[in-house]
């Protein structure tokens, strides 16, 4: 029989007074991006540290007490501990970029005292901080974790919000046929750096989330990420029924019903948790649409607390909301059937004082389409002050994807900007390389990773030193791959001879190509195998061998992605590939670190333009690993000809088979004519000078741009501060401006159809000279509206072969006729700055001093 305890308690390791700082360090994730702190924990028991996924808490719980006592008398260890502790305390108390440059934003808003302190809440369904905390699935989560780390480095007043998954994301293993199998081991919360949030009596703080005919409760945990707290909600508590306790069991697990309940806890529960903790934000940043329900909860609270109508509350909440979309594939954006939305959020329809159609319209591209599902991305776009894609190309793709939310507006003007992703460099650069950069760049590269002048000093690093360090990283990667391969063979029950043969797989001196990412079909993980005979010749060249290391997981329901993994595993068993191609199971941040540090080339071949960003290539570049990539995502911006390799020239295809053929040939051509010769062209000292020139260019040109310090600074300056200032402006004076804006919006929408732009029969010259000015006058009947309500614009630009202005430039017109008359005459001029066939159009847009931009209302009238 099984025994259920009537009481539970926790036994913690006993640390002598002299070792007490270890506990403080273990419970702040700052240690994981400080190499000296990592070395400190590794020094306690290097083998055990590896076995426990580099978790200091599990390490301290598992190491014998005798070893603890021994360390308390080890002067060398104690000196190391003191050094790390001093560094940590200096970091936590030191001044930051935010304090030095932007602290006035906390107290001033447009010259007036701010009504609320500046605080950003960053919502994300997953956070990849370290492999010892399995609360992430891939790039989205790792980016979110790097976002928090850089926010901490910069001293930004930001908090993270997510869910605490009992089983995390899937753990992967492959069966004999190569088919991905999933397991979901339970997370032992007491082996994680979780700090329970409690009330004044020491009882766990619980947040309540309204569900149909019941209330679901969630416990609040905190993980401290440097200066930044990450709050995590856990529904697995006795106050909930068994079904609701399982809602936070798995990241991206379950069906649509599970997903909507998770997103209610994240968005609604997350916001309520912050208020319970006294951390009410002025800006909510929704990282992907999973948390978009937080906007509805903010509106509800504002209506309730200030006795507002929905329209006024929406204006204020929208002002303080930022949204980032990551998915250029429509199927990757969550949406729910209207009956499911009504079932779970029906009470919000009543509390927001909306009718069913209007409420559902918040999540529809076409609010009047009763058959359209309720989209979380649409809800986020409709309730955000600013929205952005995660690379410049992804911004273009996103504007095209969602342009119908702003009917009549050219896609190039859709108000979705682009802020290119980055990586937290200190988390991904190898310890050996970090020490090398300390010597030749100075230690400021850690504090000022965006300073180009620092990174130019990479050119001064001796080729021999940089190459030896990179060779050590490759050796560590090969060693890891062999060890993991041996474990995989043993688990599958292969003969001992095959298990031992794992030690002969790969060559630590051979050119190593890495491919590691989520296995989705558009990423084309098997493209390099399209011509296996040609590939085998490249890999098995005796003088210039090449090898491939693959890793990555497929979503449990992505059968196409699983097929790709199974194909690769079958290839690894073929004689021509057996020693040259390896698939490492159960990809995580530890494997990722070894690969981005130890590979020579990072292969990326998605179907353009479906790769929104692709941060793994940035991590590789930070270590001097050269990208071989399709010009998609971030690589369009990063590639400069001499800092990596490009597959194609940015072409997009409709015939996918033809695309695969062309781009696979391009990969072989580049490998044969550029990559392999450059890598193996060695001097008498065995150093590949040409390759090292590319490595140095890779580091010096890419690291100062594609890092999360730059990214978070850009979010702060372009989005967070603007949203905070608008929020405080609309919130001030008992939300008078928000109410005014809501009334204005309603009036403009009701009268917009009355606008008429009258035909202009005035002749214009057939030809103009560069530098000339073309005067233009138009007459506009505004109906019940006034010139203060609108802006009339000329839209001019080159006319393409389809007779359209592909890249329009607006020119505001000035009212010159009687302002109280009908129609009103508007005048302006076009300055002819370049030759070509030009055209112009006329449009009217709504205008108000409190709008974030003229396009936000989604109203436009063309002449």
Class from secondary-structure proportions? alpha/beta
Total helical segments:
30
The average pLDDT score comes to 94
* Main sheet makeup: 10 strands, mixed
The stretches of 5 or more residues where confidence is low (pLDDT under 50) are 108-113
Distance between the termini: 81 Å
Percent helix: 40-55%
In total, the number of domains comes to 4
What is the assigned CATH homologous superfamily of the largest domain? Answer: Glycogen Phosphorylase B
Specify the CATH architecture of the largest domain.
Answer: 3-Layer(aba) Sandwich
Rg computed from alpha carbons, rounded to a whole number of angstroms: 29 Å
> Within the CATH hierarchy, at the fold level, what is the topology of the largest domain?
Rossmann fold
> Which descriptor suits the 3D outline?
globular
CATH class of the largest domain: Alpha Beta
How many DSSP-defined strands? 30
How large is the share of residues in beta strands?
15-25%
Short structural summary:
The protein has 863 residues and is of the alpha/beta class. It contains 30 helices and 30 strands.
List keywords for this structure.
single chain; alpha/beta; Rossmann fold; 6-stranded parallel beta sheet; 30 helices; 40% helix; globular
Plain-language structure description:
- This protein has 30 helices and 30 strands.
- It has 863 residues and is of the alpha/beta class.
- It folds into four domains: 17-93, no CATH class; 118-421 and 713-738, Rossmann fold, CATH 3.40.50; 442-689, Rossmann fold (3-Layer(aba) Sandwich); 755-862, Immunoglobulin-like, CATH 2.60.40.
- α26 (615-622) links the parallel β20 (601-604) and β21 (626-630).
- α2 (35-44) runs antiparallel to α6 (75-93).
- The longest helix is centred in the last third of the chain and has 44 residues, at 708-751.
- The termini are far apart.
- The model is unreliable at 108-113 (pLDDT under 50).
């Amino acid at each position: 029989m099984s025994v259920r305890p009537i009481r539970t308690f926790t036994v913690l390791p006993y640390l002598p007074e002299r070792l007490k700082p270890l506990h403080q360090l273990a419970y702040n994730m700052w240690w994981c991006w400080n190499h000296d702190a990592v070395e400190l924990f590794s020094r306690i028991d290097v083998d055990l540290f590896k076995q426990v996924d580099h978790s200091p808490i599990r390490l301290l719980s598992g190491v014998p007490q005798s070893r603890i006592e021994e360390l308390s008398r080890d002067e060398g260890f104690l000196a190391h501990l003191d050094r790390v502790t001093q560094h940590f305390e200096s970091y936590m108390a030191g001044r930051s970029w935010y304090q030095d440059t932007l602290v006035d934003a906390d107290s001033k808003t447009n010259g007036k005292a701010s009504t609320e302190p500046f605080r950003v809440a960053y919502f994300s369904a997953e956070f990849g901080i370290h492999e010892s905390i399995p609360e992430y699935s891939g790039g989205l989560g790792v980016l979110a974790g790097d976002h928090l780390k850089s926010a901490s480095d910069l001293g930004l007043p930001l908090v993270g919000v997510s869910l605490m998954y009992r089983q995390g994301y899937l753990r992967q293993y492959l069966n004999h046929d190569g088919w991905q199998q999933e397991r979901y081991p339970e997370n032992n919360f007491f082996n994680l750096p979780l700090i329970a949030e409690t009330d004044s009596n020491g009882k766990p703080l619980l947040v309540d989330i309204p569900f149909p005919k019941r209330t679901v409760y969630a416990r609040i945990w905190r993980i401290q990420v440097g200066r930044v707290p990450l709050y995590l909600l856990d529904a697995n508590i006795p106050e909930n029924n068994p079904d609701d306790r399982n809602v936070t069991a798995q990241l991206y697990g379950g069906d649509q019903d599970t997903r909507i309940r998770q997103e209610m806890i994240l968005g609604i529960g997350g916001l309520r948790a912050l208020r319970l903790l006294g951390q009410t934000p002025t800006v909510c940043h929704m990282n992907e649409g999973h948390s978009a329900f937080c906007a509805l909860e903010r509106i509800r609270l504002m209506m309730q607390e200030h006795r507002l109508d929905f329209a006024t509350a929406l204006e204020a909440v929208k002002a303080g909301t930022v949204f980032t979309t990551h998915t250029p594939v429509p199927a990757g954006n969550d949406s729910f059937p209207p009956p499911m939305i009504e079932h779970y959020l029906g009470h919000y329809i009543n509390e927001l004082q909306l009718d069913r159609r209007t409420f559902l319209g918040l999540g529809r591209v076409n609010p009047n389409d009763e058959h359209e599902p309720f989209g979380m991305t649409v809800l986020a776009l409709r309730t955000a002050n600013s929205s952005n894609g995660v690379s410049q190309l992804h911004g273009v793709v996103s504007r095209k994807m969602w342009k119908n939310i702003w009917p009549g507006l050219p896609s190039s003007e859709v108000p979705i900007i682009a802020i290119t992703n980055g990586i937290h460099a200190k988390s991904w650069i190898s310890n050996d390389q970090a020490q090398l950069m300390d010597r030749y760049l100075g230690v400021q590269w850690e504090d000022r990773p965006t300073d180009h002048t620092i990174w130019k000093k990479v050119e001064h690093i001796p080729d021999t030193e940089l190459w030896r360090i990179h060779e050590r990283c490759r050796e560590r990667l090969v060693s890891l791959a062999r060890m993991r391969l041996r474990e995989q063979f043993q688990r599958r029950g292969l003969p001992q001879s095959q298990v031992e043969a794992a030690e002969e797989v790969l060559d630590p001196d051979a050119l190593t190509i890495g491919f590691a990412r989520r296995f989705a079909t558009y990423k084309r993980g098997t493209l390099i195998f399209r011509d296996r005979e040609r590939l085998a010749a490249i890999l098995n060249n005796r003088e210039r061998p090449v090898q491939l290391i693959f890793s990555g997981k497929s979503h449990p329901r992505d059968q196409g992605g699983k097929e790709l993994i199974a194909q690769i595993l079958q290839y690894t068993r073929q004689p021509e590939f057996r020693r040259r191609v390896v698939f490492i199971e159960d990809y995580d941040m530890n494997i990722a670190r070894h690969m981005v540090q130890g590979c020579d080339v990072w292969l990326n071949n998605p179907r353009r333009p479906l790769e929104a960003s692709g941060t793994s290539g940035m991590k590789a570049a930070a270590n001097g690993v050269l990208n071989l990539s399709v010009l998609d995502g971030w690589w369009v911006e990063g590639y400069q000809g001499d800092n990596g390799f490009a597959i194609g020239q940015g072409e997009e295809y409709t015939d996918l088979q033809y695309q695969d053929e062309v781009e696979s040939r391009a990969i072989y051509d580049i490998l044969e004519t550029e990559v392999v010769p450059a890598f193996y062209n060695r001097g008498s000292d065995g150093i590949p000078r040409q390759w090292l020139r590319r490595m140095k260019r890779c580091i010096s040109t890419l690291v100062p741009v594609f890092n999360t310090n730059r990214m978070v600074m850009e979010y702060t300056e372009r989005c967070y501060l603007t949203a905070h200032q608008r929020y405080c402006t609309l919130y001030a004076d008992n939300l008078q401006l928000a109410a005014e804006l809501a009334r204005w919006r309603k009036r403009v929408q009701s009268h917009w159809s009355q606008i008429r732009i009258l035909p202009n029969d005035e002749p214009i010259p057939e030809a103009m000279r560069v530098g000339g000015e073309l005067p233009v006058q138009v007459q506009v009947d505004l109906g019940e509206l006034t010139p203060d309500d609108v802006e009339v614009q000329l839209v001019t630009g080159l006319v393409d072969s389809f007779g359209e202005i592909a890249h329009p430039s607006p020119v505001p017109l000035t009212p010159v006729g009687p302002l109280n008359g009908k129609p009103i005459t508007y005048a302006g001029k076009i300055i002819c700055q370049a030759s070509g066939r030009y055209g112009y159009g006329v449009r009217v847009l709504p205008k108000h001093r409190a709008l974030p931009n003229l396009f936000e209302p989604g109203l436009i009238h063309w002449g």
